[in-house]
Amino acid sequence: MLLRNVLKLARAYGAFTAGQAAYVLEIPLQKAVETLECMVSNGLLSAVDIAGVRFYYRDPVEAAEAILGSVDLSALPYEERAKLSRL
To answer: pTM value?
Structure first.
């Protein structure tokens, strides 16, 4: 049930953080982190760290759009902007 809800969250948000998942799914943050990292290691989700924030996603195009809408690109160093272009 939790895995299905996480996948629905990825579809709805495009990209999300562990904090967002914990809030929406009403689970402790540590449980969210463990679940998301397990899903990444099993290939169900992907993750990227942008400006010190770990984003989880399934579709790289949707993830890039969601992340670009939530960060100020002019404030990001070149390396961080390059990560977004490689999604």
So the answer is: 0.85
